[in-house]
Amino acid sequence: MVAGFHSFHWEGCELPDAELEQAHDELMAPTEGQAYLHAFRTLLHSGHTVAAGIALDHFQCSGALTRFGGESAVTQYGPDVLAVARELLRQPPTPEDEDTSAGANHASALNAMMNLAQAADVDLIADALALATNANVRSAACSAAATALAAAETPSPRLVAALGAVAFGESLDVDLEERTEALHAVFEADDPEATALLVRATESGERRMQVYGALGLTINGRFHDHRERVERLAATWPQDAEYPASLVREALTGFHSIYWLEARLDGDPELERAHAELMFPTGSEEAYHRAFRTLLHSGNPVAVGIAFDYFQSWQGLGHFLHEDEIEAYAPEVVARAWEVLGDPPSPPGLSPRTGEAANHISALNAIGARWPQPSDARRIAEVLERATSDEVRDKALWVAYGVLDTDETDEAEEAEEAEKADDGAAETTPDHTADGPDRADRDRLVDLVSRFVFDPSLSGHHETALRVLGEALGPEANPLLLRALASDNWDIHVQAAWRLSRSELIDEHRELLEETVEGWPVEVMSSAHDADLVRRAVFGGMHSIHWEDHRLADPDLYRAHRELRAPSGEETYHRALRTLLDSGQEVAVGIALDHWHHDKGLESHFGEQARAVDAPKVLARAREALHRPPSPTGAGHLSALNALRVARSWEPGDAALFTDILRQAADPEVRSCALYTVSGFLYETNTADGELISTLGALARDESLPVSLRTSALGSLRDAPGDAATEELVRATGCQELEVQAGAALGLTDEPRLADHRDLLTRLVASWPTEGAPWAAGLVRESLEARD
């Protein structure tokens, strides 16, 4: 069986036929997208419990399907997965055996339903909970139950009771973690039975149960009736009480606002009452809506700003109202926000925490990228022109994103309608997409956003501005992105490259991007993460380990290198690897060796076992590289040494080869790598070459070398077979450095060396400090004490 994720619950089980086994192999080590998805469907619809269970586990495992199908794959197969999961839940729980735990079929089904469960599934989940005998099934059932209860218009008393039995049933062998998982699922049920369970939890002797019970009482309209209970209980908890006690305390504090903390409502009782209702709802939706509109339509800038913050924040209206109710407020809120943006910026004292223009920041945040219309281009352009603070500019750029993005869609729709119209109708229909006022406003807005990329006086917003241009304008942004790519500002340059390397643009600009990225420094100080993303998009995977600053000029070798970085198939990969290995060029051979030995190279694409295909040629080229004089950077020797170390396939002549490398190496990294490789060589063979042992001893005693390298040499000596290294270890104990003494002494603690050199070790230990000694000194002491 190939390496990879097998499943959650079916590790030791066998599949009944070769077709299913082949499909499972494909899931564990995918070859390409369509094959992966076909294998998934084969297992899912096989009608075999183990096969279906494996498919459900892969569906849930880290979004496995999204690797080959994106979000659409999850959407596409979600209904099939849900149907199969329901079928497994209708089966009796599978019995426990040596390969699987009890109820593995239910565990896989419930796990897959974690984000898919619907209101119709409440009884199936309740049945599974009642039959569950282990933690895997109960935990998955609680997660699925929460999703099903949230989807149900009316609560399911049966499912709530089943969750209550897990949370409080004394007959079950259920740990505290499972009890709180069940209690957490109860949060989603808005009914008296669920509330009673949460109240009961607050009376528990277990603080974790108290915390979850209290948290549940802060949501779904329960808080007003139970706030006093929650306050009283929270006061008994220590300040460092475990999560989610902090969420309970936040609920008790209430959500004030985003940008108006410490601001005052000027003692207006009506506004203060309205704000209090939003912070701590009484449970009446009518009162809640009335309070929100009171603040929104008041003439008080602080009250209006608080209303904007409540509209936008998930801690605001989203904590009490459903999404569709919040959506219904959008026209009203957005209209009010544009009114506020026409007012002067508020003075710093009005909002001490936020400072100047808090009213504009709240208004822009409420509009965001979601609510503007194409007709708002002129208004947001004026806001950008007048803005005097960075936060206002940042918020305004996101509104501009929404304006331009919406405008592109509307223009496309208008153009489509125009094509359908007949010639006569077209003559009488106004052209809003040509050079009229709307187009002029849009062009003005694009120009303003572009200034945040190219105007040094507006620095600090280039990343957002490039995102607005690149994502909202589509192909229209290409000239601007190409201009940004030519920027002397490294961050702007990389951000533009990242935009141009997106999947929809990269093919059009690949040649330019390849030339650009090849010229980048190996070590990138700023924008390093984004630069790495561009490199991977343009060239595929890693370039190499020791040849990053080299480009292969030969077109055939360059194409072979590209194949290693982004393989089109396993056979073509090995053919490309051999092309580089047989090229006779040091750089090409070194790159091939790096891809062969490193876990981000060949192994990441085809698994560790794929190394065997080209191993003989790789080892021959590695030994040839080690026989050549080292390059100034030592890259050739580093690539070769790592390949030999990973291969663990030694030859008699390797001892002399390693001896020469250790004696000649001038680069500390090469010498360190050679010592690492020699350790494996000595440990895995019975070779105790006298010259190699003598060279290691000389390195260990060489006071001109770093202590870390000398102790590495001692580590290699400790791996030597038999008694070959004893003399060198004894000689090294005479060195002045405590780390070297301890490293050598550690090698003498193995039998029969310990018996022969116990007196020497005892004297050494007596001379060492008891505090601050190297780790090896502690092990030597322990060995002597154990012997005594």
Automatic annotation (TrEMBL):
Residue spans of biased composition, Acidic residues class: 408-420
Domain of life: Bacteria
SUPFAM superfamilies, per the entry: ARM repeat
Protein name per its UniProtKB record: HEAT repeat domain-containing protein
Biased composition (Basic and acidic residues): 429-440
Taxonomic path: Bacteria, Bacillati, Actinomycetota, Actinomycetes, Kitasatosporales
Segments for region (Disordered): 408-440
